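Supplementary Note 3. Input sequence used for the single-chain structure prediction.
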Amino acid sequence: MVLQPTWKLLNVNISVYTETIGYGKEIEYTETDRETLSPEDLKVVIEHGIDSEPENEEEGIEGMTMQLIELLTSLANKGSIRSLIYSGIVPLITSIASYMILSKDQENEFITDQSQFININNENVYEHSVRNYCLDFLSQIIENFDDDAVEAIL
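The predicted structure, written as discrete structure tokens, is reproduced below.
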């Protein structure tokens, strides 16, 4: 079953996502990590193969988060998994909503220019962003579960 590990990773990732994207902090490694991992493993290096050139896709924590939410969105369409999603709809929506926080950069823009908030809400709907993936997921959940989804969101 794909749903359980996806759900678990999504929940574990919330704190890392919030710290790095929301608060703009660097990932801190534990002493054990520093002792067991090589210096190359501690660096954030993303190497692309010959046929895997980046196509304006996010990488790292943001990219993984978008892929997880996209996977959950596609799973929400599967008939056999709908009952599982329905049984945990409130915590699932709560977790997804946690990913809709402003990034540190967006927050800094808002502090300098309060009208920027309007622009953030109207950002390109076709842009790859965690917020847009969350909105796609919530739209799919509302389409699948109607009033129950709206009640869970509220």
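The first helix runs from residue 3 to 22. Residues 20 and 26 are 6 Å apart (CA to CA).
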